[in-house]
């Protein structure tokens, strides 16, 4: 690869390392609550190696190298540099890489799925590795895979058949999309959920690897009594238990310990189901844990752990390990409580009729949390789970806003693409605007909507003889979900990004309602685009437009593939703003290379042009989802997220020149001493990040 092309894959220099501040909230817990939080944190972080193995084959040995090198020098990197004969700049380049690696739990960006490589030269990295036999052996194992290499496709996660990297299909470079889909459809027909599985192609068929502590659970412990089948083409499909067995055993044991400190029977039942699920590999027991989780309203310690989000599986159905443990911020939660109370009045404001909405809005728990532990490849600002449609439609869901993630700031952060005249308003209101956006996105965005389906043979959750009329075609709907189909199985690879886009558009539409802004203490509910509530709304629209521009960093020109679900969604919303007309939004520049690119967005036209454009787009997103109209949805979404030559050749290069490093968070550890739990925090530096992982011996 040429030097210019390699630049976009170099590790951040320096990465933005910030602390995940938690101490006051943790110290406010009782001793019993601290023990509960402690074991849940151990269970979460015990999945660290699962995440590493889900990213790339070389991620785990690189992790082991970082830990071993730190132990070798006892964290004294100045002495290590002298011993190895490397410069202080090279030492810093290594530390920058290590911090970014640990912040993403792998050598591919959690937000973008593209590889990042060290800025330290291979000879200098080998010099560091040569300080001990153990570190040199580890280095020899990954030295050919830590840098860019010559195969551009391997710099991105994706389908193996496209030349990309995916360890959801381990040791199976020849497995095709069609084979993955075929196995998935077969397992769906058997009723086996896919989130905790990986697929391995064998000489005579396929092994379905299931995460479980037990390598041979009994038929009664499994979700399916059968474990082997022969397909019509003669190939065998075999269930193989015990994927990540060592890790799952530690995880299950900590859930069993956490159960001893549960605050109530609901939490105890939830812990029991978690323990069974991670021991046997049963996702039906995991779903039961989620049903108990929804019933655990307003706990002092909130947590959800498992194979949750499916963004990184190229097929969009297998989950990445994730676990969070957090304390409730009661003050910030009050506004979210008011939003929940207002939800039944706000949903009718959205651009579709009641036929496309749940009969009853299932009022969720919506809390602002301060995160103690977030184990996984990256930390979001808000979460809406569980992702199982049958639970969401019938029992409900929970929304959480992660307060200390939202408020974490790096000093002197650059803000490209915002005009000088808008900077003051943008800087003052972007954080509260984002909190409003997260609330609307998670609660009403992911929480609204009905899937029209044939629930079982001949039974429907809508009037099949007099079907609802689509507001798009003005004709009765003709598509719907068939028995056994889910939203994820029908929309497949586009599902994650499409749903994020729908939720973002709900937030953009409803943030224009000044009664919503009043809930968050901005304005008195009166429409006033020039008042403080108008300032917040303006900052929200500017933020979304800016995110849409910055999103181009996460689109790869070689594969012509989006690497991040949220960013693909935000680019489509930017396009929607621009399509509303130059009188509303335009990208402006005077330089040919767009080095002075800024966004002009007219505050006075948000309500007259911006909101209607968003609502028109949102209506299509929603109706296509509700009616399982994948063909129409795919065409619309691919068209609006297509990166045309202007964006590819001019805007994207300007974005890459001004990109800002994504934050990586240094998290505290909990330590049990004499039956009590203490919190140990670390410096917000690369060394502090490494130290925090080194001290998790159970990983």
UniProtKB/TrEMBL annotation:
Its EC number is 3.4.14.4. It is an enzyme of class 3 (hydrolase). One of its GO terms (cellular component) is cytoplasm. The keyword Hydrolase applies. Keywords: Aminopeptidase, Cytoplasm, Hydrolase, Metal-binding, Metalloprotease, Protease, Zinc. Gene3D superfamilies: 3.30.540.30. Zn(2+) binds at residues 441, 446, 500. GO terms for molecular function: aminopeptidase activity; dipeptidyl-peptidase activity; metal ion binding; metalloexopeptidase activity. Its main location: cytoplasm. One of its GO terms (biological process) is proteolysis. Belongs to the peptidase M49 family. This is Dipeptidyl peptidase 3. It comes from Polyplosphaeria fusca.
